[in-house]
What we know:
By secondary structure, the protein is α/β, with parallel strands linked by helices. It has 21 helices and 16 strands. The protein has helices at residues 35-63, 66-78, 82-95, 99-115, 120-141, 162-167, 186-194, 230-250, 278-283, 307-321, 357-362, 364-377, 393-412, 430-434, 436-439, 450-458, 476-491, 509-514, 527-536, 539-551, 555-566, and strands spanning 2-3, 5-8, 11-18, 153-157, 173-178, 198-200, 214-218, 223-226, 267-272, 289-292, 325-329, 382-387, 422-427, 445-448, 495-498, 519-522. The strands form 2 sheets. An 8-stranded mixed β-sheet has the order 1-8-7-3-4-5-6-2.
Amino acid sequence: MWQGLAAAPGIAIGPAAVLKKTIGGLEQTGPAAEPQEEEARLTAAVEAVRRELTALKERTEREVGAEQAAIFGAHLLMLDDPALVGETRRLIREEKLAAPAALTRVVDDLAAALGALPDEYLRERAADVRDVGGRLLAELTGARTEVVLPAPAVVVGADLTPSQTAQLPKDKLLALLSGTGGRTAHVAILARSLGIPAVVGLGERLSAVRDGDLVAVDGTQGLVAVNPSDRELEEWRRRQAAAEEEKARLAAFKDLPGVTRDGRRVELAANIGTPGDVGPAQALGAEGVGLFRTEFLYMDRTDLPSEEEQFEAYRTVVAAFAPQPVIIRTLDIGGDKELPYLGLTREENPFLGLRAIRFSLARPEVFRTQLRAILRAGAYGNVKVMFPMVATPAEVRSARRHLEEVREELSRAGVKLAEKIEVGIMVEVPAAALAADLLAPEVDFFSIGSNDLIQYTLAADRHNERVAYLYEPFHPAVLRLIERTIRAAHAAGIWAGMCGELAGDRLATPLLLGLGLDEFSMAAGSLPAVKERLRALSYAEAQRIAAKALSLPDAAAVRAHLEAVQA
């Protein structure tokens, strides 16, 4: 059994179809013609790939969605990037290299540089560079390979690319396995949009897989078995059947309201990352959006998104959910997430640096453009705005001042906009939780970002395997901060929600309900199970469960308590 990174949920079993490697480590050292001829070859290849990508973008938009198609819009931009094509031309002219050799060196260097960056999202862009580079190299060398699936299969690729994934016949695609990539890789995003189980980051182990090998994939837990024994296969088939049965059973809860047995109403919303996530979230019964991340608008490009571009993206989501609420989080970027066009200075400790609301207040021109787009989108539904990583009341006042000034500008210009908009903050640093009573009068709601709150409280990076054991949602310190935040919100007459992963953990549902949480926002896939758990509880019972949890000495005892009441 192999352990990889869970990229898209679901269980699949079927024969393997192994794709060839695209580019990287290839020897492309053939003799060069005159530099002018090599440059002409490169120009022709670029134009041919531009046509291919344009067609692929249009096809993906028709079959999957506009946001997923934007991946190939970013690939098209790479064809105009001086770092890729311009540098290849320089090597052809100055070092007299053949076009394939020059291109291979540039792609390898660019991908290596991106792969060495500390931010996971930017590291994943190395795969996009290799994808575009591979297409150009195929044009230059004529070594093109078509992706053909004669029968349903689990597709295996050492470095599976977005364009390969988008070209696969969906009716024959059982699952995806990639040696490279992480949860934010474009391959993973496409797999989730297609509803195909996927496991990525499996490394060199995938080289042992051969065409026709029987492969079992658990995209929820990131597990893979190759040629399992009869006994193991029987167990996989049992798990697959159970998962399908559970999925069908929970589907019955999709359209039911989030209400406890004794009538306490709680809002169950979805966390989304792009407008393309709206359909799946609504299909799973989301009663709104508790966290709309806006970073996708700023990634994979060479300049800032325009106000109009942002407005269209926000309006699409807001109108789709109206009259249900959509909470738009302002830009949560900076520090570790370096976007070259922002000109950010490298920091020694980026997680404690200029990020989230700190960045927005430091770059008001970027912030106010986003606020204008949000206010305009508010005219099409129920919008709330949320500021991330707030630590002080002064930050809230400053952010709200920008919001009001932008509102006045738009009103004076006669622009259609939201008449009233709720303003909230993410409580994700201990300072905000401890000073929640001071922050509550400044806002209309709190949303607890449990992932960062746990990490900052315990000073432990959950992705660092050496200290990940410290990342414990049920640690008494974390529970006390959550309880304090909710209590302060209610004392000030505002509501409190949670948009971190803890909100989607059904084991935690009675605890959070009992602490008084008003809104749970989570990955859409968790909604049916949490809704089922919530509807089986009474509020009084949940309060007793929460009170006992707060009295326990450590996380293990809290977990055991919650498991006991769940049984």
